[in-house]
Amino acid sequence: MDRDSVRAELIQVAAVAQAMVQLLDTGSTAMVHEFDRLHARQVSIDVQTERDYQYRRWANQVHPMEQWVCILMEEVGEAVKAINDRYVFPKIEGPT
User: How far apart are CA 95 and CA 75, in angstroms?
Assistant: First the structure.
């Protein structure tokens, strides 16, 4: 797979993540109103804020692509756990 194909796949991953954040924040993944575009821009700002935080915490991270994939999968695993805990298997309180 060439560089442009890899880049396109990574953009698709980011687009899905952005849609999931939009669904969480607004209850919809529609991109039909100016509000939706403004929200997408805000998510991009939030992503850059997280990147800035990571830079302050770990400095410049220079990793080969295969290590970035491992980091990505760790973050995906944490997101899946959070989604499962909140939506799939919420804790059920027993009788009091």
Answer: 35
